[in-house]
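User: Could you walk me through two proteins back to back? I'd like the raw sequence and the structure tokens for each, with a short line separating them so I can tell where one ends and the next begins.

Assistant: Of course. Protein one, sequence then structure:
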Amino acid sequence: MAKYRLVLLRHGEGAWTKENRFCSWVDQKLSSDGIKEAQNCGKHLKALGFEFDLVFTSVLSRSIQTAWLILEEMGQEWVPIQSSWRLNERHYGALIGLNRAEMALNHGEEQVKIWRRSYDVTPPPISESHPYYAEIYNDRRYKCSDVSQENLPKAESLKDVLDRLLPYWNEKIVPELKSGKMILISAHGNSSRALLKHASLMRTSSMSPSPLVCPYFLNLMRTCTLWALTSFWVIKKLSKLPSKKWKIKGK
């Protein structure tokens, strides 16, 4: 029986992280700390003996840069990388660029929490007058995407993220996993949450022993601690990983 292997990670710290601003689809590169986080992650993965066959990223620089730095530290720069907007961070609409503390003052902490953490509540959409609208929608990376520009999201709930991510997961990633490849996905906080929800990498009562997957999620903004999401364990010593295997959804 095939053993599917997947490492999913959130990119390192971005330039807006310390300012606590909604970065979303604004293309920010890693901060100096984020670069170190990605490099340390690569060192940890190399020490654990991970050998990747294929890497998936979003089209945002912080996701791609994280993957580059990790592969460089591992001596695996040759590994192919495929990038898609469908792995992008959640589109926060009109909230993009705003400070979360200021948002809480203007709209209340509860409303901001709902926008950020609910599954199916969408924030106000971005308008053409928004200061980052042109920067996002005139970017050539989206003119080369698999959907027309007018069909790109203007705001998303977590459910919306999952809906736009699933075609890519089913058509591109799952077949590579089933072929036996070791896959690394360098994504974002919310695209990771959506993918984990669908793939059932988190512990549920409906887990089946077949087919198998060994999933791990690395949050580089938490000192590269390796989380085994099958049981919400935090692995303090990265050399001691759990051996549990879980079902993976997909075609």
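----
Protein two, same layout:
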Amino acid sequence: MMTVEVSKCNGDVKLAIKRLKRTCDKNGLPRRWREMEYHTKPTTQRRKDKAAAVKRHLKKRAMFERRLEENSFRSKRGAKVPFESVIDINMLRSINDQDI
């Protein structure tokens, strides 16, 4: 069983509860409680994990494309072009059209 110690409250119960909640949130306990509330089949869990990975990948790629477009705009104003902007945006868009 996991224990969480809350100290330095000087007898203030409200402050102790607030610190306990903050500590639990930092450790990720509410998320673990929700996961352990119901049993999920391994195939369902793998499907969820894969969907989350695809979502992370798409988000990362969108951020990268946005940075490339911003950098190409900045380079027209005379700023130095970073190494990332050397990659062709059309190539990235063709990769975007492919299935993951």
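The longest helix spans residues 42-76.

Let me know if you want the two compared in more detail.
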